[in-house]
Amino acid sequence: MPAASLIAVAPVVDGQLNDAVGILKMLIEVTVFAVIIYMVLRFLRETRGSGVVRGLALLLGGALISFLILIETLKLERLGWLFSAIAQSVVLGLVVVFHPEIRRAIVHLGDAPFFGRFFRSDSKIVPRLLRAVARMSKERIGALIAIEREASLSELTENGITIDAELNSYLIESIFYPKSALHDGGVVVRDDRIVAASCLFPLSQNPEVDKRLGTRHRAALGLSEETDALVLVVSEETGKISTAQAGKLNFDLSLEQLEQQLEEMLGRRQAA
Questions:
Q1: Measured between alpha carbons, how far is 7 from 3 in angstroms, rounded to an integer?
Q2: pTM over 0.90
Q3: What are phi and psi for residue 213, nearest 5 degrees?
Q4: Helix (H, G, I), strand (E, B), or coil: what is residue 178?
Q5: pLDDT digit string (tens) for 95-147?
Q6: Which of 43, 166, 183, 228 has the fewest CB atoms within 10 Å, i.e. the most exposed one?
Q7: Which 3-state string (H, E, C) describes 182-193?
Q8: Contact 217, 237 (CB under 8 A)
Q9: How far is CA 56 from CA 41, 50, 52, 94, 141, in A?
Q10: Domains plus CATH for the chain?
Q11: Contact 212, 205 (CB under 8 A)
Q12: Nearest Cα to 247, choosing from 260, 261, 229?
């Protein structure tokens, strides 16, 4: 190929290379922004009862975007410098103010389903829970059990009595035995472990709830309104089994119906 042709082709090749590099940079930037947004949304989702946190995050996010658009559109250099200087202090202040929520979210990150697919072994949570509930129902022993899912229940466990023991039907029965020091309050189950007992669950404030509903049922309903947990209730008066999920109570369930709910929640059949 003549030298003149090579000289003519070189700028075209350089231009195509620059375009490819530009596209690659754009893809990297979009990916980074998507990961950041996902982590923020996951943090807000896993923070129980975080109306203030969510409202503040939306307010600050909206203000940030508005300021950036205004600065870039009108080329306000001085305002941009001031905004950059203040933004660092604001981020540091938010970390200090919301460090308990951030710590809980980080702790719960290791329990995320993504990591669970690689590290979690076959669970026996369903048959063990069924055995405990069946015996407590027969003996009319009141019980309140919350099974953690995506939303973290760490705030509840911190206010209860730490157990951190392998899930066992006899241990659950011992906790809810009427003369036990831990029988008041609820139990939080995470994966195959009993995390804490004697936890105080938020009572439902729904005005449409039947006033005759007992404290355990109101607590189960209240927790299910604020999180995605599945909450089991055994009535002390009747021995009937109920569940609360997504702000809805299911009364007088059979063991077969309870087993079906548990297996649907966990996403797979469990080995006995």
A1: 6
A2: no
A3: -70, 135
A4: coil
A5: 776 666 666 666 655 555 555 544 444 568 899 999 999 999 999 999 999 99
A6: 166
A7: CCCCEEEEECCE
A8: no
A9: 13, 10, 6, 10, 43
A10: 3-113 (no CATH), 123-266 (3.40.1700.10)
A11: no
A12: 229
Tokens at residue 165, please? 């023991």
- Specify the amino acid at residue 6: L
**Rounded Cα gap, residues 69 and 89, in angstroms:** 21
Distance in angstroms (rounded) separating the CA atoms of residues 72 and 81: 12
The type of residue at 124 is K
Q: Which amino acid is at 109?
A: L
In this prediction, residue 111 carries a pLDDT of 52
At how many degrees (to 10) do helices 77-97 and 99-109 cross? 70
Residue 8 has pLDDT above 70, yes or no: no
Q: Report the range of poorest mean pLDDT among 11-20, 22-31, 233-242.
A: 11-20
